[in-house]
Automatic annotation (TrEMBL):
The lineage of its organism: Bacteria, Pseudomonadati, Pseudomonadota, Alphaproteobacteria, Rhodobacterales. One of its GO terms (molecular function) is methyltransferase activity. SUPFAM superfamilies: S-adenosyl-L-methionine-dependent methyltransferases (SSF53335). GO terms for biological process: methylation. This is Class I SAM-dependent methyltransferase. PANTHER family: TRANS-ACONITATE 2-METHYLTRANSFERASE-RELATED. Residues 39-133 form the Methyltransferase domain. Keywords: Methyltransferase, Transferase.
Amino acid sequence: MAEDPLYHDARLARFYDLDVGWGADRDCCLNLARDVGSVLDLGCGTGALAVRIGAETRAEVTALDPAAAMLDIARAKPGAERVNWVQGDARSVDLGRCYDLILMTGHAFQVFLTAEDRARCLATIARHLAPSGRFIFDSRNPAVREWEEWRPDLSRRQLDAPELGRIEAWNDVHWVSVVRVFRTSWAV
C-alpha cells in the first residue's frame, strides 16, 4: 500500500478538511450512530466525523488512522477529548473489544489495493463488530470513471487556508503499473 504524503506530511494534512468538507454521507453516518452504544471509525483521518459523533450522540467513540499527522489534527479539534484516538493499521489492529457500528468513510477502503489487504481489513472488521452490529463503508463506482475528471484543467479550485490565505488545488492521476493513484496537489 503506497503512502500518500497528503495523509502523512503534517504540512499537507492540515489542508484535508479544507478540501473535503461535510456532506450527506457524513450526515447519514452521524444519524446511524445516534442509536448505538459504541462506534469505531476506521480510517478516521482528521476526525471530523468522530468528533461530531462524540459530541452529538451517547456513543463511546474510537477513531483509528495510520497517519500520525492526521491524528494530531483530530486530537486538537474542539470536542476531541470525547474520542479515543488510536494510531494503527486496519489490516492488523486488535482493540480487544467489539463495536455496535463500524464506519469506514471517505473512500478509505480503497487504499487496500490487493486481495490480501482487503481480506485482512475485513477480518479486522469482523473481529471488532458486535453480533448485531453494522459495518458501513463507501467506495467509488468504477463504472462512473471519476478519474477521467481528475485533471488539473477540470478540477482546479480555490481554498481559503486560515494561516496561508488563498490556495489553489487540483487533482491529477498518475498511472503506476495497473494501479491508479489519485493525488491532490496544492499551490500557495
